[in-house]
Write a structure and sequence with these properties.
44% of the residues lie in helices and 5% in strands. It is mostly helical. The mean pLDDT is 84.
């Protein structure tokens, strides 16, 4: 991997660009985030009120999600999300 690719992997992107990188529609990406099927943001933007947050993901995080995401037809209600926080 070149230095340029490594630097690009560290770049932070908003939901619309994360969706573009993942090859899905922005509303699908947002639904995945809401359902905990997408990775948690690398920068959750917790300094703002919940309704005004603009979370960002590293390009490398989105690429990893794209190559490791679960395929169509998966019963997430039975198996749970790989990104869901485990209850103690």
């Amino acid at each position: 991997m070149s230095t340029e690719e490594e630097e690009d992997g560290e770049r932070l992107v908003f939901a619309d660009e994360a969706a573009r990188i993942a090859g899905i529609k922005p509303r699908t990406w947002r639904k995945y985030v809401q359902s905990q099927l997408a990775p948690p943001p690398d920068d959750p933007d917790l300094d703002r009120p919940a309704a005004r947050r603009m979370p960002r993901w590293k390009v490398a995080t989105v690429r990893h999600f794209t190559t490791h995401r679960v395929g169509r037809g998966r019963r997430s209600d039975l198996l749970g999300s790989p990104y869901a926080k485990e209850d103690a």
